[in-house]
Amino acid sequence: MADIVRKQAGENTRAVHLPAAPTPTQQPLGTPVYRTAAFQFGSAEEYRAVLNDEMPGYSYSRIDNPTVDAFARAVAALEGVNLPRWPAAQAFASGMAAISGVFWTFARAGAHVIAPAAVYGGTYGFLRNVASRFGVETDFVDMSDLDAVEAAIRPATRMIFAETIANPTTAVADLRRLAELAHENGALLVVDSTLAPPIICRPLEHGADLVIHSATKYIGGHSDATGGVVTGRIELISNIRSVRVDTGGCLSPDEAFLLRRGLETLPLRVRRACATASVFAAALSRHPNVMRIDYPGLPGHPGHETARRLFDAGPEGVRFGAIVTVIPHGGREAGLAFADKLRLAALAASLGGTHTKVSHVATTTHRQFDDRALAAGGIDPGAVRFSIGLEDAEDLISDAYVALESLGSLSAGRDSR
Fold this sequence. Notes:
Elements: H1 11-16, H2 44-51, H3 66-79, E1 88-92, H4 95-106, E2 112-116, H5 121-129, E3 137-141, H6 146-152, E4 157-163, H7 175-184, E5 188-192, E6 210-214, E7 228-232, H8 234-247, H9 253-263, H10 266-284, E8 290-294, H11 304-310, E9 313-314, E10 317-318, E11 323-328, H12 331-341, E12 346-347, E13 357-360, H13 371-376, E14 384-387, H14 393-405, H15 409-412
Parallel strand pairs: 2-3, 2-4, 4-5, 5-6, 12-13
Antiparallel strand pairs: 1-7, 6-7, 8-11, 9-10, 11-14, 13-14
C-alpha cells in the first residue's frame, strides 16, 4: 500500500492539474472570455442540480456560458430600456439559427405563419424548404398592407413575422397595428429588427413579443463575428432556450466577446451610418439613370411617416437606417453592371459593418426567390442594396455617380426589365 500512495503527483498529472486562474477583486472593464466547454463541480449533487436547472450555474457551454450570457443580457438591456419589466434574451450561433430557433419553438405541425412577401431570403428559404416539411404553412403577404395581413389570418395562425425595415425594399412595418392584429387572434408578433438595431427602434416597446437580430450585422459592426440573439418576455425566452439547448445552435464565447464589445460603439456607428445614408439616398435620387430609391428617410417613401413615429431621433434627426436600395433603369442587366462598376463600395456579403457593401439583390441575398416571388415582394430584378458604412458621404456618392454614368445604353432602355 505504501508504494501506491505517492508523495508527489507525476509530471503528466501536474501538467494537467495546474493552479487555477486568480479571481480578481476588481471588476474588469473588458468582458472575460470563458473559453471552456465544461465546468467543474464541488459535488455530484451540485452537478445534478445545475444540469437540471434546479440551481444557477454552468455545466457545459452548449447549454450556457458566462460570456455568452453577458452578451445576451447586454442586448436585453438595450432592447428593454423603457419597459416596465426587464426582458430576457438568448444568443445563437447566427441570425438564421436565432430565426429558426424561434420557429422551432412556436410553430408546430399544423401551425400557420404570416411573413412578408419581401422577407430576407434566408428566412424565406427556411419557411419554404424546411418548416414546410414539418407541417408549417406560410402565407407571404405585403406586410405594409394591414388589410392583406388581416385577411391572411386563420384559426391556425400562430405567428405574424415582420421585419422592422424590410430587406431589401426598406418597407417599414407598422409594429403597433401588427401587434394588435396578432394578439387579437391569439398569435405572436415576432420581429426581425436586424436593419433597425435598438439605437433606431425597439420593437418590444411597440407591442412585439419577440425581437430578433442577426448580431453579425450592426451589433458586431466589424464583419468579424457571427451570431444571433432573441429578446422578449422571460417565459417565452425560457422556451426558446430549451429548444436551443436541444438543437445545439449555441454561440461560441469568443464570438460573444466580439459581439458584446460591438455594443459599446453601436450608437456612434449607427448614428453616423444613418446620417450618411440620408445624404447618399437624396443625392442618388436625382440621378437620371436611377428609376427609384428605396430608403425610409426620403419623404416620398411609403413608410416615411410610420418610420417617423416609430424610430428614434437624435440631434441629427430621425434615424431611418443605413440601407439604401438603388434601382437603376434597365432591369437586371443594368443592376449587375452598376454593382460591378463600383470601386469604393465593396461587393461583399452581409451588412452593418464599417465598410459600405453592395449586393445585387436578385442574385445574392434573395437568390431563393424566383421571378414570381420577386414581383410579389416588390423587388425589382435590377435592385442593388447598399449597406452604408463609415466612409465619407461625398466619396460614396462620387463612386456611385461614376458607376451610374457608365451604364450608358443600358439605362437608355428604361422600360426593359
